[in-house]
Amino acid sequence: MPTYDFIVVGSGSAGSVVAERLSASGRHSVLVLEAGGSDRRFYVQMPLGYGKTFFDPAVNWNYKAEPDPGLAGNADHWPRGKLLGGSSSINAMVWIRGQREDFDAWARGGNTGWSFDELLPAFKAIEDNQAGADEWRGTGGPLHVTDCTPFSHPLTRRFLEAGQQAGLPLNPDFNGPTQEGVGVYQISTRNGRRMSAARAFLRPAMRRGNVRVETNALATRVLFEGKRAVGVEYVRNGKTHAARAGREVVLCGGSVNTPQLLQLSGVGPAELLTGLGIPVVHANANVGANLQDHVGINYTYKGSIPTLNQILRPWWGKLMVGCRYLLLRDGPLSLSMNNAGGFFRTDPSLDRPNMQLYFQAFSTVLPRGGERPILTPDPWPGFSIGLSNCRPSSRGEIMIRSTNPLDHPRITANAFSTEGDVSEMLAAVKFVRTIASMPAIAEVIREEILPGPSITSDEDLIQDFRKRSGTVYHPVSTCRMGPDATRSVVDPRLKVHGLAGLRVIDASIFPDNISGNTNAASIMTGWKGAAMVLEDHS
Asked: Is residue 365 scored above 90 in pLDDT?
């Protein structure tokens, strides 16, 4: 059995960072196991190409949640990255850290070292922000963050003006001193190409002699000697292999794969494991529990002026933007679908924003099989104002169905399962209509397409957002961090409670969800977690 100092399972947003940081000194050998393949694919590297990867089994786990009563019985599609870079290679690239209060709440819960002020140096060290360095932003780091303000569609300016007319301030930097307001999103790209965690961290690490990356290597079991993790069993090219960890096994599979692997390895709810015939190494009912996710919906409008629909739908438009991208690496294909957005409070008495906005200068009402129809929008000039909740109180779980590692786990999201989540979403969709009624944007709206002007009562609005809402792909907390082993999976140093030689470093450790897109915080978790590992093995 080959031996490495560290085995990192998963090369996603956190795993790529962990591998780079643990190998940087040259003193430690690192094996990275990635269930998917290479990220060297055109539609992965082209930012707007994630419409093509949305259902692509070559790069996507294509999970499906259980039918959800909170979503009118719909079984939600859950894309997760299955390639180098993980979900950072197929996401929408919006770079949001979260609110100061999110991380300060983590620290108040007993997670020493995880307050915002303690994490800010890590966030800044990661970044090479095009907007320049200041008290909040960093430059010179491995991950480039693009300022999209110069490339915004003209309709975006109308959205920003309408948001201000509705009472929101203009916010030039959602990662600055405050999150509230409307503004243009920063995205993780560089020179017109996606800046995934693989590109920023793992690819440089792979040039080192002390790093081995095995792709198409599905981890099937953590190997234990008593209560100590000593290695990983995995399947590659139809053959079972095993590798030994001289120091630690680090799980970075994310909020779906990490609890799945722990449960397959005998770490999890005892009743579930014994029922499947899995020997219990360590019983912990929190493994796979406490699932939190952001849920969102779009309101879509038919406009009276051209939108990106008129460029991205016709063949000649596709040819034009395609040639522009290939020659200049700019234009619509170099950006995210979410050009702008913001954060607002559904109740003025709240101390901070609890809803996130997204503005898209195109619309995709008409379905198209096999891909998210980003590259084939509607035949009329359309645009969408979307939103998602920041800190929902609904909780779900992710549990294995069988002992077969190839079987997708059971994802029970329980969206809108609390009255608070329903009431704040009702207030939020009403505010979207308020923005759309403001003069700056109302004067270019011909009609509301979805949900449509006939949906006006509270009952109808709730029924509509139950039917049309879905995940915005930010699952967290299935191996949550905390000092109390009866209520969490890992301690504040990300060591798995009750076991030795095993850590979890990915978004599954979030004690609670953050306010906004989770990729930046996942990458920060990789940076912070790797520093802890190195401190403990110095």
From this structure: no
Rounded Cα distance, 331 and 322, in Å: 9
Which residue spans within 138-238 are E strands per DSSP? 143-147, 181-184, 186-187, 189-190, 193-194, 211-214, 217-225, 228-236
Q: Is the pLDDT confidence value at 371 over 70? A: no
Domain count of the fold of the chain: 1
Tell me the per-residue pLDDT of 240-262, one tens digit each, with 9 for 90 and over. Answer: 999 999 999 999 999 999 999 99
CA 275, CA 13: separation in Å to the nearest integer?
Answer: 33
The alpha carbon of residue 290 and the mean position of all alpha carbons in its chain are separated, in whole angstroms, by: 17
Catalytic amino acids? 474
Contact partners, residue 194, CB within 8 Å, separation at least 6: 44, 45, 46, 47, 89, 93, 188
> Does a structural domain hold residue 419?
no
Q: Which residues pair with 360 in a beta bridge?
A: 384
State both tokens at 46.
């082209």
> What is d(CA 159, CA 183) in angstroms, rounded to the nearest whole number?
9
The gap from C-alpha 276 to its chain's centroid, in whole angstroms, comes to 31
H or E element, residue 18: helix 15-23
Tell me which residue range forms the domain holding 515: 1-23+76-144+191-202+211-293+400-407+474-538
Q: How far apart are the C-alpha atoms of 214 and 146, rounded to whole Å?
A: 31
Does a structural domain hold residue 43? no
Please indicate, yes or no, whether the overall pTM of this predicted structure exceeds 0.85.
Answer: yes
pLDDT score for 538: 87
Q: Rounded mean pLDDT of the chain? A: 97
pLDDT for 376 equals 80
Please report which confidence band the pLDDT of residue 369 belongs to, taking 50, 70 and 90 as the band edges: low
**Which residue type sits at 292?**
Q
| Contact indicator for 53, 60 with CB cutoff of 8 Å | yes
From residue 249, alpha-carbon distances to 191, 348, 476, 496 in Å are: 35, 46, 21, 11
CA 82 to chain centre: 13
End-to-end CA distance of the chain: 25
Cα separation, 184 vs 150, whole angstroms: 10
| CATH code of the domain containing 133 | 3.50.50.60
